[in-house]
Amino acid sequence: MAILCRYPDAFSAAIGMSGSYRIERFYDEAWSQDLFYSAPLQFLPGLEGPQLDRLRQRRVILASGEGAWEDIGSSWQIAGALGDKGIPNRVDNWGPQWPHEWHTWREMLPQYLRELT
Q: What is the pTM (predicted TM-score) of this model?
């Protein structure tokens, strides 16, 4: 998600699977510019100009379950930030039977790759 937002010329879409878009909670160190640009919820609100114009021509899919260790609220947060900037996106809720584990993502990814290719 962060890479698409930073480099919309290089990518046409992003698939966020069970993502966490507020990475600052993982860092005890001083906040840096590199961390800022790795956290879309930090830099998207201030994004303007040609980079934003290109992002408005991209697609974002945010897939998440609601099972153990899942936080679909994070997907809804980034969807709101993207929507506020006019960037096409959607949240796909896979429901409570899908936990934050590899088998969930193994099921999700092929579906979205087929859709985007």
A: 0.90
